[in-house]
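Researcher: Structure prediction, please.
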Amino acid sequence: MRIITVPDFSGDGAVYSLASLLGVPANTLVRGLLMREVTAGTTHTRVGDQNVSATRGIPLSTTDSLPLPGVGAIYGESPMWNLSEVYVYAATGDILAIAYIP
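Model: Predicted structure follows.
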C-alpha cells in the first residue's frame, strides 16, 4: 500500500469532484483519503455530495482534517471511495491539502 500526495489546491469558489480536482479518471476508486484545510479564505472548505456549497456539506476550518478511511463492504457496497462521488467546495483563498491511498 502507498500514499499519493498531490499539490495543494487553491480554492476559487467553485465545486469540484475529487476525480476532476486530482486529475484522475472518472470513477477512480481509492482505499482511503485525507483532506486538510491549510489556509481558510472567505468561508470554510466544505466536503459532501454534488450539492455541496458554501452553506452545505462538512465544514473544514483551518488545520481541520477529514479522514475518509477504507470502509468494509456493507450491504453490497464497495469498500472503496469513488472520487467522482466526493465533492469539494473551496472558497477563494482556501488552500486544501489532499492525499489518498489507491
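Model: The CA atoms of residues 47 and 58 lie 5 Å apart.
Researcher: Thanks, that helps.
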